[in-house]
Design goal:
With 288 residues, this protein is α/β, with parallel strands linked by helices. It has eleven helices and twelve strands. It has two domains: 124 residues, Rossmann fold (3-Layer(aba) Sandwich); 146 residues, NAD(P)-binding Rossmann-like Domain (Rossmann fold, 3-Layer(aba) Sandwich). The chain is 40% helix and 20% strand.
Length: 288
C-alpha cells in the first residue's frame, strides 16, 4: 500500500541546480516509510539567485529541514542563523535543520566520508592521511577528519581558485584541532611519494577519473602504493576508477565514494529526525 500524505506531513527537500539526477528523494522517502515517519522529501531546482527567497519561503512553511547541493552550498552559510563547527570552518552548508524557525547549518559530506571508511573496515582515527585536492568535497573531508581525530593530514593541491581558501582552512584546523595539517603544492612527485609512504590512507577528493574522462588519474607512479595503504576515491562513476584499479593491483584495500553519498544522507536524516536511517535497507535497494 502506498504511503499516504496527510495534513501533518512534514516536508524535507533538496535545493540546487540541477537536481533531477539526485538519488536523495528515493533514499529519504524510503527511510521515512521504513521508520513510519509522516514526512516527505522532494527536490526543487533552485539556483543561487533564488536561494534567499526560497530559504525564507521554507522557513515560513515550517519545513523539517533541507539539503543543498551545488552551486548553493556557500551562500547558504550566509542565510543560516547558526553553523556547526565544520560548516563554519569550511564556509559551506549542505544540510539545514529548521529548529523552530532558526536555521542551523551543517555539512555532512565529511561525516559521510568518515562513516564510509568505517563501513569498509578501516578506522582512520589517530592515523595519517594524504588527501588529493582542496575543492568542496576535499575540504569537507579534510575538516571532518581533523575534527574527528585523524592525527595528520597532508593536502596536495594545485595553485587554483581553491588555494587561498585551503590555506585558511589549514591554519584554522591547526589552531583549533590536534591534527597536524600541511598544505603542499602538487608539483613535486618526490614530496607526494614521501608523504604517501608514511600514510595509512590516500584519498582522492577531486573529480579526476570521473566519467566520461575515466582515463584520468593523479597518481602515475604506482611505486607509491604500499600494502598497508587504504585508497579511497570520492568518485563513484565509474565504481572503480583508474586510481582504484592501480591501487588494487598493487595490493591496496580500496573504496569508492558510493557509500560516502549514502552516509552523508544518513547524517542529514539523523539531524532532522533524531533517528538512524536504516542504511542496510537503503544499501540493498539503491546502492547495489
Amino acid at each position: 500500500m502506498a504511503r499516504k500524505i496527510t495534513g501533518h506531513t512534514r516536508l524535507a527537500c533538496l535545493l540546487g541546480s540541477p537536481v533531477e539526477h539526485s538519488i536523495s528523494p528515493a533514499m529519504h522517502n524510503e527511510a521515512f516509510e521504513q521508520l513510519g515517519l509522516d514526512c516527505a522529501y522532494l527536490a526543487f531546482d533552485a539556483g543561487v539567485d533564488k536561494m534567499p527567497q526560497v530559504a525564507e519561503g521554507l522557513r515560513a512553511m515550517n519545513v523539517l529541514g533541507f539539503n543543498i547541493t551545488m552551486p548553493d552550498k556557500n551562500i547558504m552559510c550566509e542565510l543560516c542563523d547558526e553553523l556547526s563547527p565544520a560548516a563554519r570552518i569550511g564556509g559551506a552548508v549542505n544540510t539545514v535543520l529548521n529548529d523552530n524557525g532558526k536555521f542551523v547549518g551543517y555539512t555532512t559530506d565529511g561525516t559521510g566520508f568518515m562513516m564510509a571508511c568505517k563501513d569498509s573496515g578501516f578506522d582512520i582515527i589517530g592515523k595519517k592521511m594524504t588527501l588529493l585536492g582542496a575543492g568542496g568535497a576535499a575540504s569537507a573531508i579534510l575538516i571532518q577528519a581533523a575534527l574527528d581525530g585523524v592525527k595528520e593530514i597532508s593536502v596536495f593541491s594545485i595553485h587554483d581558485a581553491f588555494w587561498d581558501r585551503a590555506e585558511k582552512i589549514v591554519e584554522t584546523l591547526n589552531a583549533e584541532t590536534k591534527c597536524m595539517v600541511t598544505l603542499f603544492d602538487f608539483d613535486d612527485p618526490s614530496v607526494l611519494k614521501s608523504e604517501i609512504a608514511g600514510s595509512d590512507i590516500l584519498t582522492n577528493g577531486t573529480s579526476v577519473g570521473m566519467a566520461p574522462n575515466t582515463d584520468g588519474c593523479l597518481i602515475t607512479d604506482t611505486s607509491v602504493f604500499h600494502e598497508n595503504l587504504m585508497v579511497f576515491d570520492v568518485i563513484y562513476n565509474p565504481k572503480e576508477t583508474k586510481l582504484l584499479k592501480l591501487a588494487k593491483e598493487c595490493g591496496c584495500r580500496t573504496a569508492n565514494g558510493m557509500y560516502m553519498l549514502l552516509y552523508q544522507g544518513a547524517a542529514s536524516f539523523k539531524i532532522w529526525t533524531g533517528q538512524d536511517m536504516p542504511v542496510d535497507i537503503i544499501k540493498d535497494k539503491y546502492f547495489k
